[in-house]
Write a structure and sequence with these properties.
By secondary structure, the chain is α+β, with helices and mostly antiparallel strands. The chain has one domain (2-53): Arc Repressor Mutant, subunit A, CATH 1.10.10. Helices cover 42% and strands 19% of the residues. It is built from three helices and four strands; from the N terminus they run ααββαββ. The strands form two sheets. Strands 1-2 form a two-stranded antiparallel ribbon. It has a two-stranded antiparallel sheet with strand order 3-4.
């Protein structure tokens, strides 16, 4: 909902179009705790995520 509000897109569009695409290219994962960005997404954005550790589920932990 936050992303939808920030981009002025419908929540359904984010969930039905954007989210599956980001998951397909490996930038986003759904976990029991919610959605998390992957290391690949951080690297694509040119951001440093060296302070993060990957968990067994592939999610990034602070």
């Amino acid at each position: 909902e936050t992303l939808a509000a920030a981009t002025q897109e419908a929540v359904e569009t984010i969930e039905d179009v954007c989210e599956p695409y980001l998951m397909q290219i490996g930038f986003l994962q759904r976990t029991p705790r919610g959605r998390v960005t992957t290391r690949l997404a951080w690297e694509h954005l040119g951001l440093n995520c060296a302070h993060r550790e990957e968990t067994n589920q592939g999610e990034l932990r602070l």
